[in-house]
Design goal:
Strand order of the largest sheet: 1-2
Distance between the termini: 32 Å
Shape: elongated
Structural class: mainly alpha
Mean pLDDT: 87
Strand content: 5-15%
Number of strands: 2
Helix content: 40-55%
Order of helices and strands: EEHHH
Number of domains: 1
Bound molecules: zinc ion
């Protein structure tokens, strides 16, 4: 079992796989992820701060998608901050 901290509501919860999102926030997570993906398609050279400002998602959250390995930057250069 892993002890995880939800990146949306900061709730501490346990799960069998390592994850950054609790069950309650799964929908928010998917919505934000879709937004980021769409944004990067249009502006492939954005960094986490620009995405954060454009979409109203914290830079911390954007970076977490990278850490989770969900966000793949195919084109351009993705600067962490
Ligand atoms: Zn949560």
């Amino acid at each position: 079992m892993y002890t995880n901290v939800c990146k949306h509501c900061y709730k501490v919860f346990k799960s069998r796989i390592r994850t950054f999102t609790c069950k309650n926030c799964r929908q928010i997570d998917d919505d934000h992820f879709d937004d980021i993906e769409a944004y990067l398609k249009e502006y492939p050279n954005s960094n986490a701060l620009q995405i954060s400002e454009a979409l109203g998602i914290t830079a911390y959250e954007v970076l977490n998608y990278l850490k989770e390995g969900r966000l793949h930057i195919s084109k351009g250069k993705f600067e962490q901050l």
